[in-house]
Amino acid sequence: MDPSEPTVPRRRVSTAVVVALAALLAAVIAIPVLVAVSLRPADGDRLARDLADRVVVGIADDVATDGRAADAERLAQEATTDPRLPSDVPDATYEVAPLAWSGRTDDADGARVDLTVAVDVPGTSATAVFGKSRSAGSTRACWRLVVHPGQDVADHHRIACPDGTPTATPSPAPLPTFPATTERDVRAALEALPAEVSGPAAQDALAARFAAPLTVRVAREGDELVAAVGLTTTLDCVVGVRAGDGTARTFTGFDRALLAPGEVGCAPSLYLAPVTTH
User: Fold this and answer.
1) Is residue 190 part of a domain?
2) Does the reported pTM lie above 0.70?
3) Quick check: 95 pLDDT over 80?
4) CB-hemisphere CA count at 13 Å for 19?
5) Cβ neighbours of residue 193 under 8 Å, at least 6 residues apart?
6) Is residue 11, in this structure, part of any structural domain at all?
């Protein structure tokens, strides 16, 4: 070999060829692997478990109360009657049923609701090359919801399912309703009171007019007599104000956070000392 002949470029060409061949070999090996992975059916059991978890999260969100006190039997009925279901797997089928319930949201331990969720997803076959397929799958699991007033999402965790997964049917007593005529009735009751009626006397008269489960709270400040009539279970409230000339007017639409148990509630102070919330 001529000592003057350059050798470095020849080594560089050899290295480039080796790298190219290695890349080609890697691609040849990877392609069958990728094809095999793409053709593998999605795990139906895993999908069913994921859907069940999403159902429970939706229920935990829906049964959370905005401060209202509620009994567990009512929450069990609400949780399992037409629950929100994932819409992205339209061929999945669901069964949501109550197992047991106890307590109230205003109890120290909260209201507890046990329920079972079953999900079935059918298997699917790819309809095109590299199309998606899925194995059939199913799951059945049980959860406990613990609900306290004012939660955004109720506490929830998995529990062991009882043998045979028995179900129960909650039948809560109907909730009381706030009379549609309350505003008119509060104005009429205030205007019917004697001009110089004291706060306690007005309290007794209005409490006789608006019986339980309605609540009545009365206060006098100067010439104004203020009466608040509400219903705790629905967080409804009417505040009536009688002026010194004997005419009365009413106010509604208060922030529900203020009406919740443990807060201001339906009280004359909603008018006499209003609180601004954000």
Assistant:
1) yes
2) no
3) yes
4) 6
5) 202, 205, 225, 242
6) no
